[in-house]
Structure formats: C-alpha cells, structure tokens
C-alpha cells in the first residue's frame, strides 16, 4: 500500500491561529465566534513566563514528583538558594503552568489521585505546564537525530522499482523510502524522544507506530500538535492547490490531504492509506489474518 505523498512536514504553512485555548477553571466567556473560552494569554506572554532557567527547572521538578510539593521541598529539589527569588519565579508560573493546592484536592486532578484529601497541600503542574515539559522531554526543542547513523533495512520492496527500502535518518526525522529511485513511502518529522533509548533495529517499527498514533488522533478530528480541528480533503492533480508532486503521472492523480485548520500541520497520503483505519478495512484484514495494529503500512499490498 504505497503512500507516495505521506510527508508529515508537507503542510507546514500556517492556516490561521486562534490563540491559546487553555486556561484555569472558572470565568467562562464567549468569543466573537461563539466558542467557549477561558482566560487567554498571547503567545508572547505565555512564552515569556518561561524566560528563566529556574522556572523551567521548577516545571521539570513538578513533572517528576509523585504528587504536590510544598514550597520548601520544591525549592530544595529545584536547587534554588534564595527563597525570595524562588518565590518570585514560582509566582510567575502559578495560574498558567502551576496550580497551588490547599487542603482537599479538586476531583479529577492529579493530586486527588496521588494523595489523601486531607494531606494534599503544595504545588502541582497544570495541563499546560505538563505539555511544556513534554515538549522538552520529546527532544523536539533540544535534540536532533543523527543523520549519519546507519540506515535500517525495511521489510518491504519499493513499489516503484522493486528495490529494497530503508529507514534513513535526518536531523529531525526519518525517511522510509528507496535508495535506487526517488520514491518516499513516508518522511515524517519525528521528535528524537520517540526514538531515544530504543534499539536501532526497531526504528522502522517505531516510525510506523508513531504515524499510526497521529492518524488515530486525526481520525477523531484533533491535531496532535495544537489540538485544533483536523480536516480531510481529496485533491486531484488538476486542482489549483494540488501539491507540485501530484503530476498525474505514474498513477499519482489523487491524494488525500489531512490538515489542521488552526496551525496548518498536516500531511498527504494515498487514498488506500487514508482508509486503512476504517472499521470495514480493519475487519477485512483481521478476517484474513492481518492485524493492522501490528503490521507496518509499507508491508501491506
């Protein structure tokens, strides 16, 4: 099941930005489009709150903790010697990235699941704070892949020329394609954290699973980058906004474009690949002894 246009970076242009949609509880309001929102910050304000190493260490420390941390314990773990200075930086985080918990925990919070209600007191991450830490741990902002690492063989032949395909590394992604011709099955940008610490020979399987994760999120209508609405459209080679590589030659006349209406993140795929997750397709393969959850897309006929 070839996927000639599947490039997770192909649709990186922005298609509009509606700002920060996350905030603290309370004070619901409605914007001009009727969307229910809570307190907003501009992107500049949101990132400025993280403009000191003490604040980043605070987020990382709270992420690694089993539950809320009292001020003194949090300061000690962060390694901040000055209580006043640490209190200042912590105060900048509270409300957006950090939540102060006094007494009984709110139902559904991480604190309520990790400690008794009468003992919960201190500071814990909000979901925006956890996502910030996740972005750092994924390696997308601090690490890169070794472009000189040896390619890994893929158990599939190129559908274009019949040569063996391989997984090849680049700084911020992995290309699964052919060495003997220009064919790319997929060429996604993958956070280094998704591959870090994993066996070298397992990279093709990890790439396939990572792609399936993103497709599953998109199938439910969400963007894996910004949680915006994901939209699907069929494009033919004669459309004005068809990608340049969709020339109509060699059978490449139609592609499926999945793209976020908020941030513009998305990808192209073949029609066959786009319907792989449909229940009827999954059931058909299962009845014929193929588990689509475990079988890499490039091994499908």
From TrEMBL:
Residue stretches spanning the membrane: none
Compositional bias per record (Basic and acidic residues), positions renumbered to this chain: 1-35
Region of interest: Disordered: 1-40
Domain DUF7351: 155-301
Sequence ranges assigned to domain DUF7347 in this UniProt record: 43-136
Gene3D superfamilies: Winged helix-like DNA-binding domain superfamily/Winged helix DNA-binding domain (1.10.10.10)
Database matches in Pfam families: DUF7347, DUF7351
Superkingdom in the source lineage: Archaea
Name of protein: Winged helix-turn-helix domain-containing protein
Annotated source species: Halobium salinum
